[in-house]
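Supplementary Methods S3. Input chains for the assembly prediction are listed below.
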Amino acid sequence: MNSPFALRVRDLAHRPGEMREHSLDVEVPDAMGAGVIAVREGATLQLDVKLEGLHEGVLVSGHASAEATGECSRCLIDISEPVEVDFAELFAYDVSEDFDFFVHDDHVDCEPVVRDAVVLSLPFQPVCRPDCPGLDPVTGERLADLGEVTPREVLDPRWAALSGFQGVGTDAERVGTDDSTPHQSPEGDGRTA
Ligand SMILES: [Zn+2]
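Predicted structure tokens for the full assembly:
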């Protein structure tokens, strides 16, 4: 049991009701996460673990916090974000199909449990900020570095020629209507039939 995540449970094993808490800093031996953001090898992971003796095994629960680093999926700048996860898993005394984790040599190895929780918490497409504008498709520059960029309005020249006439059509439709509330006409105007 050389894993830095391995905890001795000899004093708890087969003693229902016994409980112990640990706080430890672990140097992550292998990167957690394979995507653009991960808790890197060598990073420090703070672990608060509660160990409880139960009839069928040792319940390992707790909280892990670390810093994940990677790059923004839109603009590729380096980013880091905090990882905070909770976990709880029973480590059984006897190897059986009912459980996924087991007490080995009076130890529980929390590593796979913590790893799963951390990896699941990582975003698939991390961003430096929620509204990151990404990269300029032409120049490859990071748009956020260029200040507030107002998107260029692309006007179809055919419509641009008409823009000066806006409103004219609406007025034309009103020609011949001498009343601004035609629907109140008791005779109706044919449109309601
Ligand atoms: Zn970004």
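The chain is about 10% helix and 30% strand. The chain has a mean pLDDT of 84.
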